[in-house]
Amino acid sequence: MTALLQVTDLKTHFFTRDGVAKAVDGVSLRLDKGEILGLVGESGSGKSVTGFSLLGLVDPPGRVVSGEIAFAGIDLVKGGEKAMRGLRGKRIAMIFQDPMMTLNPVLRVDTQMIETVQAHEKVSRATARERARQALVQVGISAPDERLESYPHQFSGGMRQRVAIAIALLHKPDLIIADEPTTALDVTIQAQILAEVQKLCAETGTALIWITHDLAVVSGLADRLAVMYAGRIVEEGPTAEIIANPIHPYTRGLIASVPHGKPHGSMLEQIKGMTPSLLNLPRGCTFAPRCPRADAACAQEPALEEKAPGRLARCVHPHGPAQMEASLS
C-alpha cells in the first residue's frame, strides 16, 4: 500500500553566526491513511522543527537542505511554496502549541474561520459560518454562536487553543500535524479533544502526527511512536510495544522518569547530563555521553536498524525483553 506521507532522510539546518545547527538530521518517516504517529522527545530534540519542515514553515536562517517529502504522490520539497499553498490548511493542517500563531488578534473568530473555509471551497458565507459553529461544538466550546462573535483576547489560553484546533478540523484534512496542542488544556477537555481526534482519524481516514513530550498522553493515542534525540529518530515501533519494552536506552530513560505507577514518595529515575548542543554534536552515538551502556563501540555512528520485528533502534547496545523484565521487577 502506498503511504500517505513518506519522508526520506530529511535534514533541516539552521545557519547561525556560531555555526550550523542540525535541528533535523536525517529523519525518515512513513505514515499511512488513518494512522496516528506519536513523535516524542525532550525539548530541543527536533520534533517541532520536523513538523514545521513538513509544511514548509521553517523560517531563515533555517532551511530544508536535503531529503524528500512525498505527500499523496506530491513531492513537497521540489514543489516548494507553490505546491504547499494548495495543500496547507485544506489537505494538511497544523495545530500549533501557541494558538496565537493561528489566530489574528484583530479579527473576530467567525471572520477567521469563515475565511479559512472559503479560501479552499466555494461555499456561501452562511454555510461556512455553520461549519465553523459545528467545529467549535466539536471541540467542546459552549455557546458557539456567542463565541464566534468574540475576539481572541476575550478567550482564555485554553479556549484559544480549542479554537485553533477547531480551525484545523474545518476541512477534515488528510493529515494533521499537532505540535503539543493540549498543553494548555485541563485534563477533562484534553481527554475530550483526544477522543474527537481519534474519532476523526477512524471515521475519515485522517492521518495524524502528534508531537509531544508527554508519554502519558501519546501512549493512549498513537498507533506508533517515533522517539527523537538530537535531531534523529533513535527508536520507532508500535506504541504498546515501546511502552512495555523500550529498546533504546534513551527511550527507557524517558519512560522511567514518568511518575505514573510509582509508589508515593519514591525517587524518580532521571537521564544524567544535558542534551548536546546542535552546534557541536558528539561523534558517533549522540546519546553516548549520557548513556549508562556506552563503550568504545559507540564512537561509531549507529544506523537505525530493525532490532526485532517491527522495531527499529539506533543503538549498538539495545535492551532486550529479558533485561527490561528484570529491571521492572
TrEMBL record:
Keywords: ATP-binding, Cell membrane, Membrane, Nucleotide-binding, Transport. One of its GO terms (molecular function) is ATP binding. It comes from the Bacteria. It is found in: Cell inner membrane. Residues 5-255 form the ABC transporter domain. Gene3D superfamilies: P-loop containing nucleotide triphosphate hydrolases. InterPro entries: AAA+_ATPase, ABC_Ni/Peptide_Import, ABC_transporter-like_ATP-bd, ABC_transporter-like_CS, Oligopep_ABC_C, P-loop_NTPase. It is a peripheral membrane protein. Belongs to the ABC transporter superfamily. This is ABC transporter ATP-binding protein. It comes from Aureimonas populi.
